Amino acid sequence: MAGVSSPPPRESPCQPTPPASSLSGRAEPRWYRRGRRLVSVAFAVIVVGLLVRYGVRLDWAEVGQALLSPSPGTLALAAVLAATSHALYSSFDLIGRRQTRHGLTVRRTIGVAFVSYAFNLNFGALVGGIAFRYRLYTRYGLDTPAITQVLALSVATNWLGYCLVAGWLFLLRPPSMPGDWALTDPGLRIVGAVLLSAVAAYWLLCALGRGRTLRWGRHCMQVPSWRMATVQFALSSGNWLLASGIVYVLLDAKVEYALVTAVFLSAAIAGAVTHVPAGLGVLEAVFIALLGQQIAAPHLVASLLAYRAIYYLAPLAIAVAGLLWSMKPSRARRERISSNVRA
Question: What is the total count of domains within the chain?
Answer without folding.
Answer: 1
